[in-house]
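[Solved] Which block belongs to which protein?

Original post:
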Amino acid sequence: MEAILDFIGTHKEVFYFVILSIFVGVEVIGKVPTVLHTPLMSGANAIHGVVIVGAIIVMLDTEMSNIPSLALGFLAVVLGTLNVVGGFVVTDRMLEMFKKKK
């Protein structure tokens, strides 16, 4: 328990930053009209490419004997890829709605 409190004490700026970003994110998304939520979220899903690259970089620096870290990194790559592909699929479907019918 003391190790956890020491970790929080030395990294309190990171916790402040995360809490502040949560509040800012909720405020920004709360001001978006309902009509724009779907295009905004499908575009935001494409940003998860950063998660994929980050997970790959972390996996490259992880030792081969550290199975839990590798499994978590693999899961992050798979879920990030699904999110990116899903975001593009939703965006493509929305754009199809605006094309003229033949």
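(Second protein starts here: sequence line, then its structure tokens.)
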Amino acid sequence: MDNSNQSAVQKGGFLPELFEVVRLNIQTYTILLALIGIWVIFFFTTGGTYLASQNVSNLFRQMSVTAFLAAGMVLVIVTGNIDLSVGKLAGFVSVVAAYLQARIWFEYLPDQPVLSAVLTVVISLLVGSAFGALQGYIIAYLKVPSFIVTLGGLWLFNGLILLVTEGKTIPANQPWFSDIAQGYVPVTWGWILGIVAIAFLFWNMFSSRQNKRKHGFQLRSVYIDLMATGFAALVILIYVYNVNNYKGIQNPVLLLAITAMIMIYLSNNTRFGRYAYAIGGNKEAARLSGISIPSMIFKIFVLMGFLSGVGGVVLASYVGYGTIAAGQGYELDAIASCILGGTSTLGGIGTIQGAMIGALIIASLSTGLQMMNVAPAWQYVLKAIVLVLAVLADVYFKKKG
């Protein structure tokens, strides 16, 4: 950037500051442009059906499981760790949910579909959280590298899935439970929820600015924050309008939106989030500042296990079965979503919003390629190319910074 532009920024000019924000966040805007580009390409190659209301509805439903896992994976990677087991943990939770629905509650609570669904969800979330706590304890307090622990977890859950299913498919399509991922929000409620989500975005923006001012951080122009938040609000309105032309907002997308809002608030506006980024930025400095690193790592893996439980419940409800292949490959999609969304493999940098965009890119690629009848082998090749390009971009922008 030339000297005149630097002077303008220092003087607080709106346009120079806007250009500086774009420059500093060029990777994020590049990812958004890539997503729009993917949609435009598939729109024309599929004769417009790619962005039809029904397909958009299915697209967001399909991304939900990956997005739940990616929401937790951001903080795991931010702290300099990795979790290779989340896909199979979600898969294990899904077969546990199916087993409870088909083998336990069917026998003991045959006429209580609501109670059986609630019990299934509660037990499934506890299972996910318990295994997250187990792995987190080994990583945080026994000092075993997360790569090794979660690789072992992947194999463990793969074996547990085979033990629970006994090599057979277990139905999980009982009333009420199947509505968790297959149901829709009524159109009127969809608009109300959309307005609530927009209100949250603006509230979170002003709350974040207040926190930054309180802690002495430099604030960018309020007009720039309003533009960014207004764009997000516009996207929400377009989405709600589109899916309401089909059947309405999908239940799993509503759950995902609630989860994302909680995770965004947790990472941006709480001590827990600040500590997580501090650990990833400089672990030794974080330790000297009085942050209990083992405690933080443990809590993050418990949270990751809980979100894996949520993903497992949604997976069982969406597919309608617990299968031996449950959760296969989801851990790779979750990690790829985080990286595509700007989470640095070096730790310390990453956002929940970016991970959601990354999950949407993964789902958009898969859906579009399937609609074009591209062979599965080439789908993997193209997704691999996109991921490697994202990592190269990450390295490039880090060097430029």
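Accepted answer:
You had them paired correctly. Confirming on the second one: Strands lie at 170-171, 321-322.
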